[in-house]
């Protein structure tokens, strides 16, 4: 029976979907081997964010700002200062599953699949090669550092940022070195990054500056490319408005300190190389140095050996891969940048996300070169399956070794379904996204210590919908009350349903004065949803629609074009 080219291509596409879905399911099930969320570095913080978002969504607030349900019920402005859009799907899953642990790992599995698929599509667009795309996607998504992000670090935001990283780099490549008309790819990538993790945005932007300093002189059509960059920047700001506008509105209202300032210092070169060869993904608190893993460190070594065989483009990619890896070590002069804005990244090892991406491109290129040199193009399918089995085997082995470590599996460190349901996770980092005044006295605030006429009192906050409620005894006229709730710009207070004036206490908390005697006052603290916030959400929505429609128009998805694309999938199997 004759099967048309388009049918073969469609079957190939469906097979690819099944392949990536199977890998994603295996990875998620492996992580969920004990029915707990492992005690990673940032697990309590990010699980706390998910609990807070889920609570807000269940109470009808689709643009959450502060946390009333958890984070010690101090009215913590977590969603004002930490982007929440891209983790929202996992929070929504908490309402669909009776077991929040199952919901969590289902969400992670979905993001694994999305990451495989995005990596594949980006590499197809970059290299015009179907097999190169699969191999790159395998090296990247089964890399040691992406596992480190998910398990020992449990930095869900940074993990999602790594999913968007390929889009960002493809966008920059198009704007400055290929087709500047495709500036919307850069806008989509950077907008997604801004709506995920601010520090990753700083890291990527910094590295983009390095790329341009090194290679922009090799470009052409400078004026058109600058205009395309300006369009991308403007579109990024608009598409990120749902977070950026409320964020800027708050940080211009009162002073804030830099969250968790650290001295910039790279990891010891010998240790990071050694840890890479060991493919170690255990926590740094258990003695590990976060690294890129054995396959990518080998790719950097062989890339140097066969550097002369690379095209000019891949030579540049290799230089950037090596540079980004070098920047994570103690050999790089980070002390020169301590007093610059880049100090906010806290840990230079975060550049491993860039090194992992670029080294994966090199690893895929080396394997494609090997296939071409030995005329193994007819064996690309079995070679890819073997590669997937090897990489997945190493990944699973690393997971099991990490899960056996004492710290990450310690009873006081792990997060259970019971802890999530009862909202008893101790999230920590309470001072990071509090105003400077509140941060200094955060220890008393998190234990609900406020004041009534300058006398310290322990209050009993209760979450009621999107408000924090305090019930007090009789309050005489002119009584001054300082509640253990952080005061932000749009914080509002009602007493027995009537709007009350507030000010900021020396502790950075909500302060009010009773204008009359009230026997049984009920104080309700709420963060007001302003017209500005609603406008910012609408602006983001419209911007994303235009960006995605622009992406769609570029490809002109009609049946004729689809048939042509499917033919390319069938016949274009070589690397660039």
From TrEMBL:
Is ATP-binding among this UniProt entry's keywords? no
Which species? Companilactobacillus nodensis DSM 19682 = JCM 14932 = NBRC 107160
Membrane-spanning regions, if any?
A: 12-31, 74-97, 104-123, 129-147, 159-177, 183-216, 228-248, 290-311, 349-371, 383-401, 529-551
Recite the UniProt keywords alphabetically.
Membrane, Transmembrane, Transmembrane helix
Query: By what name is this protein known?
Result: Membrane protein 6-pyruvoyl-tetrahydropterin synthase-related domain-containing protein
On whether Transmembrane is a keyword of this UniProt record, the answer is: yes
The taxonomic lineage of its organism, from the top, reads: Bacteria, Bacillati, Bacillota, Bacilli, Lactobacillales
């Amino acid at each position: 029976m004759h099967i048309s080219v388009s049918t073969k291509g469609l079957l190939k596409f469906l097979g690819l979907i099944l392949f990536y879905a199977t890998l994603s399911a295996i990875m998620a099930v492996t992580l969920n081997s004990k029915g707990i969320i492992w005690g990673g570095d940032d697990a309590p913080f990010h699980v706390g964010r998910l609990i807070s978002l889920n609570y807000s969504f269940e109470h009808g607030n689709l643009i959450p700002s502060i946390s009333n349900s958890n984070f010690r019920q101090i009215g913590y402005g977590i969603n004002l200062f930490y982007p929440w859009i891209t983790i929202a799907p996992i929070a929504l899953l908490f309402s669909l599953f009776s077991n929040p642990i199952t919901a969590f790992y289902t969400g992670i599995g979905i993001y694994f699949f999305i990451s495989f698929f995005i990596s594949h599509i980006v590499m197809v667009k970059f290299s015009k090669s179907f097999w190169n795309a699969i191999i790159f996607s395998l090296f990247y998504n089964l890399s040691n550092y992406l596992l480190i992000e998910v398990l020992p670090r449990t930095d869900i935001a940074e993990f999602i940022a790594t999913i968007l990283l390929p889009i960002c780099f493809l966008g920059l490549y198009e704007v400055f070195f290929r087709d500047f008309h495709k500036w919307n790819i850069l806008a989509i990538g950077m907008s997604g990054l801004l709506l995920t993790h601010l520090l990753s945005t700083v890291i990527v932007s910094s590295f983009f500056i390095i790329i341009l300093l090194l290679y922009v002189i090799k470009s052409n059509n400078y004026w058109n490319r600058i205009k395309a960059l300006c369009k991308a920047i403007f579109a990024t700001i608009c598409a990120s408005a749902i977070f950026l506008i409320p964020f800027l509105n708050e940080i211009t209202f009162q002073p804030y300190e830099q969250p968790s300032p650290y001295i910039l210092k790279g990891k010891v070169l010998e240790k990071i190389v050694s840890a890479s060869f060991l493919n170690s993904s255990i926590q740094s608190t258990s003695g590990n140095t976060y690294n890129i893993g054995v396959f990518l460190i080998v790719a950097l070594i062989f890339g140097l050996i066969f550097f002369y065989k690379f095209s000019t483009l891949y030579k540049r990619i290799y230089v950037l891969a090596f540079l980004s890896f070098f920047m994570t070590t103690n050999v790089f002069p980070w002390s020169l940048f301590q007093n610059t804005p880049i100090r906010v990244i806290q840990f230079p090892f975060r550049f491993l996300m860039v090194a992992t991406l670029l080294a994966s491109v090199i690893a895929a290129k080396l394997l494609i070169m090997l296939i071409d040199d030995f005329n193994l193009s007819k064996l690309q399918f079995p070679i890819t399956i073997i590669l997937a089995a090897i990489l997945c085997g190493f990944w699973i082995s690393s997971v099991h070794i990490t899960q056996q470590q004492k710290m990450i599996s310690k009873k006081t460190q792990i997060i259970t379904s019971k802890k999530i349901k009862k909202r008893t996770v101790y999230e920590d980092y309470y001072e990071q996204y509090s105003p400077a005044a509140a941060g200094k006295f955060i220890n008393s605030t998190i234990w609900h210590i406020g004041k009534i006429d300058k006398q310290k009192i322990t209050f009993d906050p209760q979450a009621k919908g999107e408000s924090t409620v305090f019930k007090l005894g009789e309050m005489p006229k002119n009584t001054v009350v300082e509640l253990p709730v952080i005061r932000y710009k749009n914080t509002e207070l009602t007493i027995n349903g009537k709007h009350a004036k507030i000010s900021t206490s020396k502790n950075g908390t909500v302060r009010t004065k009773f204008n009359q005697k009230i026997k049984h006052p009920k104080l309700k603290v709420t963060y007001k949803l302003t017209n500005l916030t609603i406008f910012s959400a609408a602006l983001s929505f419209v911007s994303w629609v235009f960006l995605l429609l622009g992406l769609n128009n570029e490809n002109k998805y009609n049946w004729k074009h689809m048939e042509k694309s499917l033919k390319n999938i069938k016949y274009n199997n070589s690397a660039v």
